[in-house]
Amino acid sequence: MGIFRRNKRSSVVDHSPVSRGDCACTEHIESLLTDVVAFAPAMVMDDEDDMTVGALIECQGLGIEPADDVWMNLFDQDGLGERVGPFHWRLWVGDEARCMYDDDAPLQLNEALLAQPGVDLIEWEDREILHVGAPTLCADGMLAATARALMEPRIKG
Ligand SMILES: [Zn+2]
Hints:
The chain is α+β, with helices and mostly antiparallel strands. The chain has one domain. It has 4 helices and 8 strands, in the order ββαββββααββα. The chain binds zinc ion.
């Protein structure tokens, strides 16, 4: 008698984030840890020291987790819903990172992030959370893309 094996998942597309090694990232976060991220002049009260990408991550101004919701239902002003996704990553952009971009700048942080290689979709929730669709980026590559976006001069105002 032969073994009859059926792949139950064959019809389900897997939207799990890719692991490092299976990714197509152009760079990973360790190559940027000592790079300085400038503050947005309008956002800084005192003469604060420049902050490196590594310090920003260490103080939890920047973090990443796998997406909690792969799909989100977004509603416009008329209450019409739209299913948006897939999302792979959930970025935390906390208080320290808040000083690094200006809402009145010619380029917004989400736009700068969307311009990074491998980033397909951004949904900004509240101030600190960005949902990102990036099917080919691992966590370290996604962090690198976010650091690059935070270093973009046009978000500084
Ligand atoms: Zn990677």
